[in-house]
Write a structure and sequence with these properties.
The complex is a heterodimer of chains A (151) and B (782). With 151 residues, chain A is mostly helical. In chain A, 85% of the residues lie in helices and 0% in strands. In chain A, helix 1 runs antiparallel to helix 2 and helix 4 packs antiparallel against helix 5. A seven-stranded mixed beta sheet of chain B has the order 7-6-18-17-16-8-9, sandwiched between helices. Chain B has a six-stranded mixed beta sheet with strand order 24-26-25-28-23-27. Chain B has a five-stranded antiparallel beta sheet with strand order 1-2-5-4-3. Classes of the chains: A mainly alpha (151), B alpha/beta (782). At the A-B interface, helix 2 and helix 5 of A face helix 19 of B.
Chain lengths: 151, 782
């Protein structure tokens, strides 16, 4: 059984996502909504990563480092300004999508395993990830025209 | 000279107790005998009291309330009775001014408009219309907003248009949209005449809408008075009359409301048949509020459990209910979420759409409703939905332009973001009309810095040399109320026509004329190469607006200037089906929430993420109201060791906004000449502060100095009125917004004026005052 790979992957994704949201929050303090919302969304990722942790023990833990690579590829040092904000939101979206697909994969596996606890957890986490993505989408759409066309 | 009552000393005047028809009482303040009386309505709050302006020899000599008006039945408050005097202030701007090397020079209208037109063309050509922004008001007339909306959206095509309504009424609009699918106040002021209970949440009605409070007071001292529940951290006139007064900790409105709804559900005070037939989302709400037991609410909000239970019993069992909300909700944490919980209260109990039942998501300003309706702010004209292509196509057809001209790739830019783009330099041209952000925006140091940026060209259209105007590149002198004709709509959808009574001073011009002149000089065209703006007078603009509003919830199509003149006030919608207007919306429990009709697809209350059209359609409410739940989120900035107190800001009865008018009326100014900081006796004792002593209040953003006033305010909370800037006194920092922080509600984008962490102490030695007023200050009195 390989489910441990995805338990670990989901945990990593959310840990990184929590960190990434915090980092963007710090870098864009001049954008109060970004600062505050990213902090809030970081706390959601923290909850998600804490939520999946107990399952690591249940399902074993092969070492995976994919999201870490993704994180370091995406966030290279602080950026500020309109275009930088757009790039950071873009990168957060990629990371959140990575988390989303992990939860989707896990949800499917939990159903096949009849692990109801994991299933409920994944369903809840998919909802939260979806809300994170929705905000990223909304804020990106708002920021893009000004950053790319006017500035 | 006739003054019917001393409204300065006795704000609300003698009682006329009643239930049923509110008796008339004619309030009047006239100096001299008028030759004629000109119909209008009052513009010194959002109540929209019907008035007549007394005119003699081309000057305003007084005012009287209209007894036949449904809003005030002849009454006026102190601001209404005295505010007209500001029209004749020697401080009025009378010539266009251009700033050259830090000094203003009088120029002709041609010169001023030429500079503005050249600059806007240059900016548009170099950076697109996205480098042009408009920041307007809640004080202009409907015809002016609509014209401005068309200029911005179809002429220039900029998404950057908002009003100062963002600071005052954005949450009202957002909450109505989220719950009912569209803006529009459900009730009617007549509801107060018969209601069995009143619920004032964060709404200091007695000082803000004095005439509305007179109506409530008259009920409270009549037969079968309504129960009164007040939620406010300060002792306010209404709380002294209340059956239950809750004074929660700042930032805990959602817990309080969740606690009340928790008790309603637990006691079975829910109209299940109404909920089932007319709403969606109840189960989610039930789940969220299940955790908000009275004990938990008492702990989080720091209010007594018993008070919460008593309030819930009144609200849960009253057969009719009128709720009013204002800045205590709108400018606090989780603004939209909390405001929607009051909508939910009415939905759960089925208390909507009939006499005695109303929700007033109040407005602060006289014409704020029109800023929202006409699309001069972050909304589209006629409550259309920016995310619905067929609504955009509608507007494009109406204006005879290509749909892609109208920016609709994202919601119109909200004010706080407009100023952020100015700060970043991507907006290079900002046109401010009828508002004073240099005093009213949060974090004034930042605001002054932005307005003073070299690469930002600022046009200010105003009647006075405000703190903002003094930082403009070009100032356009505007005519005000009494000097121009136009309509405006109050908080219960009553439309009044305000006629021109006198000529504006000097070369001042009505805002409508200024906008029309700009449109002509910019040569905005429709797709048949005809002028985009096809009207030249206020009445023609009104006719154009009627066409735009037709078929939408705010339908004006059945009104004419003539009909508005023949009676005092008509409530929209007024169309062929409702030729005399409409007292209550949603009488049949049918809401404007259908996916094709609604003004918004809704938002996530915690993050502000917009729901997509696809998602909304998948759960199309199809005419049902949307019950949305929200859990508590603690404030972002909370008191700590360095800044241990909460600051809230608000109003005093004698002043309006940044006092541009009321501060120039001696009777009003004399009663409220300077700001003060309200502090509890406990905090005063802890800090060794005596009543009336000069103190300094400091936040992370700045500091102010003023006198302390010891009151029964909640310990841990300070209150400073936000009216005071620097045009008449600039020896020390004193504007409340030196202290407030730049953050806003995720849904309504309304700034959180009511939760900044501050400290209080003895004033520091008076060092050099920051450059508060840029060029000059004129003394009005003495």
């Amino acid at each position: 059984m390989n489910i441990g790979v995805y338990v670990r992957l989901a945990h990593h994704s959310e840990t990184q996502l929590a960190e990434a949201f915090l980092q963007v929050s710090d870098h864009h303090r001049d954008e109060p909504d970004v600062e505050e919302t990213c902090r809030l969304l970081s706390s959601w990722s923290k909850e998600k990563s804490n939520g999946i942790r107990p399952f690591i023990a249940t399902y074993g833990e092969p070492r995976v480092n994919e999201p870490e690579t993704l994180f370091s590829d995406l966030f290279q040092g602080p950026r500020t300004g309109g275009l930088a904000l757009l790039r950071d939101l873009h990168d957060l979206w990629l990371l959140a999508t990575e988390a989303m697909i992990s939860w989707t994969v896990l949800l499917q596996a939990s159903r096949a395993l009849r692990d109801e606890d994991l299933e409920h957890l994944c369903t809840r986490h998919i909802t939260q990830t979806d809300r994170q993505l929705a905000w990223l989408q909304t804020r990106t759409k708002q920021a893009a025209p000004q950053a790319l066309v006017v500035a | 000279m006739t003054i019917t009552r001393n409204s300065i000393e006795d704000i609300w005047g003698p009682r006329t107790p009643y239930r049923g028809q509110w008796p008339e009482r004619s309030d009047c303040n006239v100096e001299g005998t008028p030759e004629k009386w000109v119909p209008s309505a009052c513009v010194l709050c959002s109540n929209g009291c019907g008035v007549e302006i007394g005119v003699r020899e081309g000057k305003i000599v007084g005012i009287r309330g209209r007894s036949d008006d449904r809003v005030n039945r002849g009454r006026l408050g102190p601001k209404g009775l005295y505010g007209w005097k500001a029209n004749a202030s020697p401080d009025r701007l009378t010539h266009p001014l251009i700033q050259k090397k830090g000094r203003f020079q009088e120029v002709s209208w041609d010169e001023a408009m030429d500079v503005i037109v050249r600059k806007s063309q240059e900016v548009r050509q170099q950076y697109t219309a996205g480098a042009i922004g408009f920041y307007t008001s809640g004080q202009l007339f409907l015809e002016e907003y609509y014209t401005l909306g068309v200029i911005g959206k179809a002429g220039l095509g900029t998404p950057h248009m908002d009003g100062n309504t963002r600071l005052c009424t954005a949450t009202s609009s957002a909450a109505l949209k989220e719950t009912f699918g569209c803006d529009g106040q459900p009730g009617s002021y007549n509801d107060i005449d018969t209601t069995d209970a009143l619920f004032n949440f964060g709404h200091n009605v007695a000082e803000q809408q004095t005439v509305l409070w007179m109506r409530m007071l008259d009920r409270l001292c009549g037969a079968n008075p309504p129960k009164l529940v007040v939620v406010d951290p300060r002792p306010v006139p209404a709380s002294l009359k209340a059956d239950v007064h809750l004074a929660p900790k700042p930032g805990t409105n959602v817990p309080v409301m969740n606690g009340l709804l928790h008790l309603l559900i637990r006691h079975g005070w829910v109209d299940r048949s109404y909920v089932d037939a007319h709403t969606i989302g109840f189960e989610k709400l039930e789940k969220v509020v299940a955790d908000w037991t009275p004990a938990r609410v008492a702990q989080v909000a720091d209010i007594p459990e018993r008070g919460l239970r008593e309030a819930a019993e009144i609200l849960g069992t009253t057969p009719t209910l009128v709720s009013t909300l204002l800045q205590g909700v709108y400018q606090s944490m989780q603004a939209t979420a909390a405001a929607c919980q009051v909508n939910n209260l009415h939905l759960l109990r089925g208390l909507l759409g009939r006499d005695g039942c109303g929700i007033y998501q109040m407005n602060g300003q006289p014409t704020a409703q029109n800023t929202r309706e006409c699309g001069a702010d972050g909304d589209l004209p006629g409550f259309r939905n920016w995310d619905n292509p067929s609504h955009i196509a509608d507007l494009a057809r109406l204006w005879n332009v290509e749909p892609h001209i109208i920016p609709h790739w994202a919601p119109p830019t909200h004010a706080m973001q407009i100023f952020r783009y100015c700060e970043q330099g991507s907006i290079k041209f900002l046109w401010i009309s009828g508002t004073n952000p240099a005093v009213s925006l949060p974090d004034l140091r930042r605001t002054r810095r932005i307005l003073g940026q070299k690469d930002l060209f600022v046009v200010v259209q105003d009647a006075f040399m405000t703190e903002t105007a003094s930082r403009a590149d070009v100032i356009l002198p505007a005519a005000i109320w009494g000097e121009k004709t136009g309509c405006f709509t109050n908080v219960d959808r009553t439309v009044h026509l305000s006629r021109k009574a006198i000529e504006p001073p000097g070369e001042a011009r009505p805002d409508l004329e200024i906008f029309l002149d700009y449109a002509e000089r910019m040569n905005f065209r429709d797709k048949d190469d005809q002028p985009l703006i096809k009207w030249h007078t206020a009445e023609e603009a009104f006719e154009a607006w009627k066409a735009c509003s037709r078929g939408r919830p705010c339908d004006y199509s059945g009104m004419t200037y003539e009909r508005l003149s023949s009676r005092s006030g008509i409530q929209w919608p007024c169309n062929s089906e409702n030729p005399d207007g409409t007292s209550h919306l949603y009488v049949d429990g049918h809401f404007p929430s259908d996916a094709e009709y609604c003004e918004t697809y809704g938002h996530d209350f915690d993050s502000g993420a917009a729901a997509t059209p696809e998602r909304y359609r998948a759960h199309n409410p199809e005419g049902r109201a949307v019950i949305k739940a929200s859990d508590y989120l603690p404030p972002f900035e909370e008191p700590d060791e360095r800044f241990p107190l909460w600051l809230t800001t608000g109003r005093v009865v004698y002043q309006f906004h940044t006092r541009t008018k009321t501060g120039r009326v001696e009777e009003l100014q004399a009663k409220a000449p300077e700001p003060f900081v309200e502090i509890s006796s406990q905090d005063a004792a802890d800090h060794g502060i005596a009543d009336g002593e000069r103190v300094e209040v400091r936040s992370r953003r700045g500091y102010v100095q003023m006198r302390a006033k010891i009151t029964g305010i909640r310990p841990g909370v300070l209150f400073i009125p936000f009216h005071y800037g620097y045009w008449d006194e600039n020896s020390h920092p004193r504007a409340a917004n030196e202290l407030t922080l730049v953050e806003w509600d995720p849904v309504s984008k309304q700034p959180h004026f009511k939760c900044a962490a501050v400290r209080i102490g003895k004033p520091g030695k008076s060092g050099l005052v920051p450059k508060l007023v840029k060029t000059f200050v004129r003394k009005t009195f003495g």
